[in-house]
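Worked example (supplementary).
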Amino acid sequence: MVNVTVDPLTRIEGHQRISTEVGADGFITDAQSSSLIFRGFERILQNQDPRDAAFLTQRICGVCPLSHGLASTNALDNLYGVAESVPKDALMMRNIFQGLNMVASHATHIYVLFGPDLANPAYKKVLTTLGDTGNAVWKEMVGRFAPISYKMDGVAVPVGSSYLAAIPEKKRLQEAIALIAGRMPGPSSLYPGGYTYPATVADITKLSSYYLQVMDFVSKHTLKVDFNTWIENTYKASSPQKAVSFVTEHLTDLINKSTSSNDFSKDAGWGDVEFYAAFGSELVGEKILGLPASLKHDTIGGYKDPSKICFVAYGGYYKYKDGYDPKSPAGDRIFTSGVVSGKLEYQKFDPEKITESTAHSFYQNSVNDLAPAKGETVPLTDPSKIVYTGGSNSQYSWDKAPRYDGIAGEVGPLARMLNIKEPLVTGLAQAFNEKGYSAANVYTRMLARMQETAILAYELLNWVTVDYNPNGKISVPIDLNAAKNNSGMGLWEAPRGALGHWVSAGSDGKVTNYQCIVPGSWLMSPRDSKGIPGPLEQSLIGSKINPVGDVDYTNPVGIFHMGRSYDPCISCAVHTIDLTGKNAPNTLRIL
Amino acid sequence: MSTGIKNLVRTLDSVDFLKMDRRTFMKALGAMGAATFLGTYKSEIVSALEFAETKLVWLHGSECTGCSESVLNAGNPDLVQALQKLNVNLAFHETLCAQQGIWNDGKLVNTSELNSEILLEDLYKEGKYFLVVEGSIPNGPDGSGRYLVIGNKTFKESLGEAAKNAIAVIAVGACACWGGITSADSEVAKDTDYRGVAFAKEDSSKGMLKELGIDKPVINIPGCPAHPDWVLLTLGAVILGKIKLEDIPSVVDDYGRPMVFFPPDHTVHENCPRRGYYDRGEFDTEVGGEKCLWKLGCKAPYSHADCGIRRWNGSVSMCTQAGGPCIACVEPGFPDSSRPLYVEREDVGIAGTNIDTVAKVAVGAAAVAAGVHAVRRMGKGE
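After joint prediction of all chains, the assembly is encoded as:
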């Protein structure tokens, strides 16, 4: 038994530690996920003008500031009683800039944060023993995904072609957001009742031009099959089986073309999506396509007990109509709210079923497992008690443990794609389930993120060029008095998953309580009061630290993949809130 | 700096950049975007640095990664190209580099090619690097620094190790400069006790380096986030030796900000795209309009930065252009000095002056130039 710890887990947002116990066979038997930082964030909103929240909560995260801004603005729309009357064109502006941010965030994750692990020397060891095919595959992996300042065996490795090309695309997407939101990160255009800037006809033309440039990157690097063909046969497919067959047939064609030449290059039709779709999975690559090797990412990061996990989505992206329902009932938004069980059964989402535990977090509570709006949290202030090495029964994280109906919830692209019954991702999840694999694993999580990126690109064009009317109304005035003794809830989808903001105001209209439950809290959470591990911990336990090749405790590439496949955002996950305000000066509320 | 920018750029096009005196150089930085600067002088830069490689170590404290995101948004050149043009080795950056901390039974394993903690130890030993810090540093609880522990070390401790052996420190973003949003007034502030590298809010006696007893030159590049041009051009100037360590005090203001980007005598207000409305006394009172945002709480007249000229993300826009008030995120008191964000500053604390009346009258050139400052002085009876 070896204790294998990754601290810090870099190439994520924030600071995270993963500690595992690993047997001689390389399988993880125990794991703790620890968030290493305490910022005291939401406390600064206390006794302040509620409108400041949409600006200041964006500073929770510089990668997805818009999501916090929007969750906050939704809570404020609700607080000021204007959610039902926000003009439809303002809602389209919000959709457009959130859509662009989500695409940029996913591109950053795929290429800058997750991708570099595909150039890990562990794969070189395995692939280069497989003759010409293995060598060709390794050459492609390192040639596409090597990060900046990378060295292997003392030799500098050039930056990967896809990595290098993705950076200007990400920049271009941020520029498109800035065009309608002032700047990025930290845009200035969100306000309850609407939006501060009506995009002009000229802006729309520019947005379309950004779109075309980004699609050029997609066709050169990401997806070599025609984009519309892909969407028609996956997102728009008539059944999950048809979507999966379309993809496997497309990949089979590519394999047939590449068998003799061992040419897996982009020129030969292997976009990054095709490449990962074929080689990432044992079930697809080796068993269906007959490839000589795969990265076996479908064998790591799955859930061993489907009764202890579910997939939660709050719902995101407004439909083109005036106003919206702040409670986000099923069907009210383009990405619907919902909950899918570990056995892939569908339920309606009910925010009342959320509780939070601090049993294994650095807090000292009198009561546990309360609904977030009634939660109680008192942090440890004795420095000697803030230790991360006490094991699964100790307090070991600044993260709290949100639970849905008593069990852990995965949020994010996979949860969203399952909840909207997106054919390709649903089909893959069902196929894995039927063959005895976990429906959720590193591979399905990454493919869901790629597929969501494509779907958003498709929807964005519609919002920009069809729905949005540049002469439409952009805001309705708010009455500041409406906030007095009122409260609001903002449910939204950040790139990393379900994001909720809750605000209450007192008789002076100032904030008495501000609270966020963020994707990182759901995903990276420690154990709860019943000892149930969070999603990342569940996915680590029972997975192998090296999905392929020999066990190497000093290069646990499987842990890197599992941790990063959730696209962790630790700054989001750890922040304080205060429910009781000035009456309880030593009581902090931390998520 | 609000006039003659274009002419200056044209003049500079034909000048040998490396032979420029410091004053002209600093002017050029202010006038040119990172793209122009690094693009035009690529060959000179490379030949000047010939084979010399400058190392950057970029540490993240308590932050949101917004400043790294912002630097990744650097225009043409992008970050990778800029590093190549400046012949810079980004030796460590937590969000971009391949390494992570790997421990077996509590001991560091593998090599610096995969293990960030070994790499950093090696880099600190070798020295001769510029240290970039993003994010603030918790001093709490009780001076322990344990509200942020990375790789079994408090960030307070890591910063000390890294700074001790650095040539100089560049603090990027409001958090690293003054504590930023993590040090905003609240009931937890006394426990977390967040600090910037050289300042705690406006107070230079409480900067983390002073707390640690380390004396190193620090340049502050504030903003929430920092503009990529401010970061890349400052790095360019430092790496080229155009800002020598002994020169730093003469090119920065009282808060350690390069005056070329954060001019003491210039505010965002002066080049705001909505300035014309202000001069005519036309103000928006609801969002979504096109007029001056003063009544919606805009703090541009108190914000010392060149956003109005430079603008953001490929110069396509800026906060006020998109209808949001300036929140003065480059100022050392941010965010406390900017709150409430949507309320006029005069209504918040300074003795009441009717800005409507004054601004409507203020159409004469002199009065317009004096702007809000004049209004404030009049309000105080000066």
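Two points are worth noting when inspecting this output. Chain B touches chain A through 90 residues (CB under 8 Å). The longest strand of chain B covers residues 54-60.
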